Amino acid sequence: xxxxxxxxxxxxVGLQSxxxxxxxxxxxxxxxxxxxxxxxxxxxAAVMAVAIVIKGGFEFHLPTMIYAVFFGxxxxxxxxxxxxCMVTGPMSLTNLIMSFSVILPTIYSVLFLGESFRLATGAxxxxxxxxxxxxxxxxxxxxxSKSWIFWVIILFISNGGCAVLQKIHQTNYPxxxxxxxxxxxxxxxxxxxxxIVIFYKDKTGLKNAVKYGFIYAVPQGIANIGSxxxxxxxxxxxxxxxxxxxVAAAGIVFxxxxxxxxxxxxxxxxQTAGFVISVISIIVLNLDL
Length: 289
Hints:
About 80% of the residues lie in helices and about 0% in strands. The chain is built from eleven helices and no strands. It has helices at about 1-25, 30-55, 60-90, 90-100, 105-110, 120-135, 145-170, 180-200, 205-235, 240-260, 270-285. It is globular.
C-alpha cells in the first residue's frame, strides 16, 4: 500500500510538470508567472477545503498553523526565487541546484531522526546526482550574476526547507492536521499572488494568462496539492532517504517522457543516459540493503 501511494505521488509530480510546461507554452507574458501561481494555489486550497469538509470540519491546532504559515512563506519564496533565477542565470544549472535541495530533508532525517543511511541509500543518491547532472547538462555559456547566485541559494534553502518543515510536522503529529496544514499554506500563497496580480504594472498579457490559467494552472495546482498531501502522508510510512530522492528522480523520468513523446524534443545521448540512470537510482533506493 505504501508503495502504491508513492507511485501515485510520483504520478502527480509528473502531471504538474506537464501542466506547468503546457501553460508556459501557451502564455509567456511576464504576468503569467504570477497568474499561474494564483490559479494553481486557489485550486489547491479549494481541494483542501473540500477535504476538510468531508472529514468533518477544520481542526484548529496552533502549532500546525505556525508550521503552515512558515511553509506558505517558504513556498512563495521558492517559486519567486525560481522565477528570478530563470531570468538572471542558466536554466539548466538552476534546475540542477533546485533538484539537489532534496538532500536537505534526507540529511535532516539521518542526523536528527535517526533514520539509517543504508548502502542502497548511498548508492542511490550517487546515481541520482549523476543522473541530475547528465540530464540537465546543456551546451550553454554559463554566466553568473551576483543576483543569480544570491537567488539560487535562496531557492535551494527555501525549496529544501519546505520539505524539511513537512517532515518535522508529520514527525511531531503523525497522520494529523495534514489538510489544515496545506489549506493554510496554499491559501496564504493564493492571497499573496492575488495582490501581486492586482498591482502588477504590466497587465498586457493578463487576458491570455487568465484564459490558460483556467485550462492548465488549475489542474497543475490540483496535481501539486495531491503530491504534497501524499508526501506528508508518506513521511510517516517511508524513510525520507527513499521518499525525497525518489521524487527527484521521478521528476527526471517524467520530464524525459513529456519532452520525447509529447513535445517531440530530441534528447542527447547524455540526457538519455541520465534518464536511464535516474530509473536505476529509484530501484536502488528501494532495495533493502
